[in-house]
């Protein structure tokens, strides 16, 4: 088999592969013999079908399969051995002519190869990249304490509604007719829950001020929620179509007033957040909260570092020459249902991501980064821990986290994302030890503003 690779401009490659009879014949003969052993042809015992008949029946198709398999194997072997950094897959060249597989060949195949441009993303201690340390101040700790208090809170029954306390009401709703009487066959909802503080119109909201057990308030749900049919359907238990035409007044008989009370900062809260007897006083409680916040914010700082590193290297590498025509053909092949317009409108963004992908590949290779099963599992556990933390569960045992991580990993759709995250974690750690960090302290508010501006 003869392979010729031409790459005059470094990015547009042309590969010509010539397959001779001697390259494929032995494999074809073996495949035909195997087929003959299994062939079931009327009038012949198994394994006794004449080879001439076998060749007439399946000889050409077997040859096509063998040649295509050898073609793929040898092409990719050549690409690996010659360290050709190919983008996408080989594509048949427009000069390719149909091959007559009824003959013995030789068969010639011509492929276009999109080759990655050369670049240098080497990092040393002479490269400087910003690194933002986010301050963990009392304000952040107070917010976290308040969040834990809210999650540990409860509702107490009270006598009178106070809008400043964001009280919750429960009562019976009844639709009224034009004369202000209970409407026959009108909408009736028992034990309807309302939080008047969330009513959009102040005039309607004020009708509930000073409400007590047994109070009857007349209000108009449509006026209270003028632009939100979802609120009406939920409150009145009606469908969307009925909500569109609902303009009636309603009475609301208050049967219960509840006030939310935050949990106290005491041993019960300490145990709930960090586990029994892990924390004994408020000072230690706040210290452990600060440690948790610092760990979370370190991930944000690392993410910002990686985005800054990307920008730094993209600027340093400069403009790259890509095989635009070939890449657009590749995009079109992968998005046939979306058309050429999709390719043209998304090509620039795609090439931008490809540039970073190539830089990142070089960094990964230079730092000897490899991702193993344990790294992927660690990322899944980290995701599990973050998901539990969102619900205030910061003391979930490792056994539960690992079991939950295992269940996440069973979904193959998650694997690629976890692999990418594992690579990023290792890449951040490696490059932080290579470049010079221009460390800056910043508040969380200023950090978030900076990220939003980016």
Q: How does this model look, in words?
A:
By secondary structure, the protein is an alpha+beta fold. The chain has 3 domains: 113 residues, Alpha-Beta Plaits (2-Layer Sandwich), CATH 3.30.70.1050; 199 residues, Trigger factor, domain 2, CATH 1.10.3120; 108 residues, Roll (Chitinase A, domain 3), CATH 3.10.50. The protein has 15 helices and 11 strands. Strands 6, 7, 8, 9 and 10 form a 5-stranded antiparallel beta sheet that branches. Strands 1-2-4-3 form a 4-stranded antiparallel beta sheet. Strand 1 and strand 2 form a beta hairpin. The chain starts with a strand and ends with a helix. The model has no long low-confidence stretch (mean pLDDT 92).
Summarize this structure as a short list of keywords or feature phrases.
single chain; 454 residues; alpha+beta; Alpha-Beta Plaits; Chitinase A, domain 3; 3 domains; 5-stranded antiparallel β-sheet; 15 helices; elongated
Give the SSE map:
Layout: E1 2-6, E2 12-19, H1 21-38, H2 51-81, E3 91-92, E4 107-114, E5 128-134, H3 138-151, E6 154-158, E7 168-175, E8 188-194, H4 202-206, E9 216-219, H5 221-224, H6 229-236, H7 240-244, E10 250-261, H8 267-274, H9 282-317, H10 324-334, H11 339-366, H12 373-389, H13 398-409, H14 412-432, E11 436-442, H15 444-453
Parallel strand pairs: 5-11
Antiparallel strand pairs: 1-2, 2-4, 3-4, 6-10, 7-8, 7-10, 9-10
Helix pairs in contact: 1-2, 3-9, 12-13, 12-14
Pfam families: Trigger_N
Domain Trigger factor ribosome-binding bacterial: 1-147
GO molecular function, one term: peptidyl-prolyl cis-trans isomerase activity
């Amino acid at each position: 088999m003869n392979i010729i690779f031409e790459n005059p401009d470094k990015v547009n490659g042309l590969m010509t592969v010539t397959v001779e009879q001697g390259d494929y014949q032995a494999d074809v003969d073996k495949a035909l013999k195997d087929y003959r052993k299994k062939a079931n042809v009327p009038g012949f015992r198994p394994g006794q079908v004449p080879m001439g008949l076998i060749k007439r029946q399946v000889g050409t198709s077997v040859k096509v399969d063998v040649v295509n398999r050898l073609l793929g194997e040898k092409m990719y072997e050549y690409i690996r051995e010659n360290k050709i950094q190919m983008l996408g897959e080989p594509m048949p060249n427009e000069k390719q002519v149909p091959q007559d597989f009824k003959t013995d060949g030789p068969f010639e195949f011509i492929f276009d190869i999109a080759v990655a441009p050369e670049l240098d993303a080497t990092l040393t201690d002479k490269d400087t990249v910003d690194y933002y340390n986010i301050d963990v101040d009392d304000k952040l700790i107070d917010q976290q304490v308040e969040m834990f208090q809210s999650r540990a809170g409860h509702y107490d029954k009270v006598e009178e509604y106070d809008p400043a306390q964001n009280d919750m009401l429960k009562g019976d709703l009844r639709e009224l007719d034009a004369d202000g009487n209970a409407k026959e066959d009108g909408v009736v909802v028992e034990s309807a829950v309302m939080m008047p503080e969330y009513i959009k119109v102040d005039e309607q909201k004020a009708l509930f001020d000073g409400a007590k057990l047994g109070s009857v308030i007349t209000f108009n749900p449509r006026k209270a929620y003028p632009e939100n049919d979802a609120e009406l359907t939920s409150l009145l238990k009606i469908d969307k179509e009925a909500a569109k035409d609902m303009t009636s007044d309603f009475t609301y008989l208050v049967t219960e007033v509840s006030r939310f009370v935050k949990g106290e900062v005491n041993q019960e809260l300490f145990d709930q957040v960090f586990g029994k007897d892990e924390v004994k006083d408020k000072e230690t409680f706040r210290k452990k909260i600060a440690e948790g916040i610092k760990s979370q914010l370190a991930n944000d700082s690392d993410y910002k570092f990686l985005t800054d590193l990307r920008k730094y290297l993209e600027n340093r590498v400069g403009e790259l020459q890509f095989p635009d025509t070939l890449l657009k053909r590749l995009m079109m092949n992968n998005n046939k249902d979306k058309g050429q317009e999709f390719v043209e409108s998304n090509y620039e963004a795609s090439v931008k991501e490809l540039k970073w992908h190539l830089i990142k590949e070089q960094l990964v290779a230079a730092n000897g980064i490899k991702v193993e099963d344990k790294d992927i599992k660690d990322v899944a556990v980290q995701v599990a821990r973050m998901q539990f933390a969102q619900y205030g569960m910061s003391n979930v045992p490792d056994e539960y986290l690992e079991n939950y991580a295992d269940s996440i990993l069973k979904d193959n759709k998650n694997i690629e994302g976890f692999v990418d995250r594992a690579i990023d974690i290792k890449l951040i750690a490696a490059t932080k030890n290579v470049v010079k960090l221009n460390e800056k302290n910043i508040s969380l508010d200023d950090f978030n503003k900076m990220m939003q501006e980016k």
